[in-house]
Amino acid sequence: MVKMKVGLIGLGNMGLPMAENMIKAGHELVIYNRTASKAESLVKKGAKVVETPAQAAQEANLVFTILSNDEALEEVTLSEAGVLAGLQEGGIHVSVSTISVDLSEKLTSAHAASGQHFVAATVLGRPDAAAAAALKVIVAGNKEAREQVWPLFEAIGQTIFTVGEEPYLSNVAKLGNNFLLVSMLEAVSEAVVMVEQYGMQAEEFLEVVNSLFASPVYKNYGNLIAKRDFEPAGFKLELGLKDVNLAIDAAKKVSAPLPLGELVKGHYEQGIENGWGHLDWSALLKTVEALKKDN
User: Fold this and answer.
1) Could you read off the pLDDT tens digit of each residue along the chain, which spans 295 residues?
2) Which of 28, 54, 96, 174 could be a cystine partner for 81, CB 3.0 to 4.6 Å?
């Protein structure tokens, strides 16, 4: 196994377990996080904390960013003390974030203009999958660059897909998958509300569903919905709205309508208005239940 030195930026619910698995695999980490105290457990395992994204990039010349939205990633990358400023020619920036197609294209061009590489490596899986190094990693970017960082993908993921040379293709694939997830959450929520109105227990209904679909996604999310187990959130409802909006914007860019996406968007917006934005995005059920009451 090739041991690598890597800068890592972002220690949220997904970033921290990914960092731990990189260290476990023997890689050397240089970390920047806005709240430095979150890195304490990693420092005890040999990681180094620096004061700016540029420093992380300069020391490793290879940086993973695991951030929550376009605004955070653009700031960390393009600011005066950002990743772009710290990387040398030939340096590699790997973005794990779920971001817009437009930003992915913008960062690809910005890095290319400086003789650097931008690779998108979006992931499928919740924090428990990240902790178990069982994520599905969707990689797109320059072949030489992505092959160079492949050992790091192996450290965090169980299955790795390559979807092309253009980084934005990873973002498109992730948005398409997340659209299918929210569509499933909407459908399961509506079905559960209906069968419960007839006196059937959600768990009994979902046992039948799981015998048909045999999908861990239906099983895991169905269990959260049936038990109303929305805290702590593995992925917040407010972030679900962010991803639905990104999918809708990506679809509009190529004139591909997402009418179901518009429906779910409205339900997520209502959920946030009702104060449920901090709950797991499977709490979409609460909005569907509220619709029943309104009718």
Assistant:
1) 689 999 999 999 999 999 999 999 999 999 999 998 999 999 999 999 999 999 999 999 999 999 999 999 999 999 999 999 999 999 999 999 999 999 999 999 999 999 999 999 999 999 999 999 999 999 999 999 999 999 999 999 999 999 999 999 999 999 999 999 999 999 999 999 999 999 999 999 999 999 999 899 999 999 999 999 999 999 999 999 999 999 999 999 999 999 999 999 999 999 999 999 999 999 999 999 999 866 6
2) 54
Six token digits for residue 24: 């476990």
Question: Two tokens at 78?
Answer: 């393009």
Same topology, domains 5-165 and 173-294? Answer is no
**To which H or E segment does residue 119 belong?**
strand 117-124
In terms of CATH architecture, what is 173-294?
Orthogonal Bundle (1.10)
Q: How far is CA 66 from the centre of its chain?
A: 8
**Which ranges of the chain does DSSP label H, i.e. alpha helix?**
15-24, 40-43, 53-60, 70-78, 83-86, 101-113, 127-131, 143-148, 150-156, 168-197, 202-213, 216-227, 237-253, 259-273, 284-294
CB 287 within 8 A of CB 225: no
Which of helix, strand or coil describes residue 122? strand
Which amino acid makes up residue 151? P
Q: Which residues are catalytic?
A: 174
CATH architecture of 5-165: 3-Layer(aba) Sandwich (3.40)
